[in-house]
Amino acid sequence: MGHRILVVDDEPLIAMEIETTLSQAGFEVVHMAQSVETALTFLKDGVQLDGAVLDANLHDESARPVVERLQELGVPLLMVSGYSADQIGPWAEEVKLLRKPIVYAELIKTLNDILA
Predict the structure, then answer these.
(1) How is the chain split into domains, by residue range?
(2) Is residue 80 within 8 Å of 52, Cβ to Cβ?
(3) Which CATH fold would you assign to the domain 4-115?
(4) Residue 75 and residue 20: Cα distance in Å, rounded?
(5) Whole-angstrom distance, CA of residue 9 vs CA of residue 79
(6) What is the pLDDT of residues 47-94, one digit of tens each?
(7) What are phi and psi of 12, to 5 degrees?
(8) Residue 111: how many CB atoms within 10 A of its CB?
(9) From its record, what is one biological process in GO terms (predicted)?
(10) Total-model pTM
(11) Whose CA is closest to 68, among 97, 43, 104?
């Protein structure tokens, strides 16, 4: 069984593309959330995760609360965004960031790197 991954993105098409790419690469996508609220609710359940891929902005809301919760839980994460770390804000500086549009080979490589 592959690494258990949470995907958080408010654009369903992108979320599905990420899920498909991760599944084909041997990861197990355990949950897909489209908002800060649904991601935080999922993370309350004490689920076992190996990593997370999330958009920096969800419906014009910062993903910062989700990032902070993942960090508290010790879950490695990869943020994807059309924005640079400077545009996102100081809280994003410690987070590995991939710029959109996503290059899926780079997504898999970077995710494997942070999980190693």
Answers:
(1) 4-115
(2) no
(3) Rossmann fold (3.40.50)
(4) 21
(5) 10
(6) 899 999 999 999 999 999 999 999 999 999 999 999 998 999 999 988
(7) -55, -40
(8) 26
(9) phosphorelay signal transduction system
(10) 0.95
(11) 43
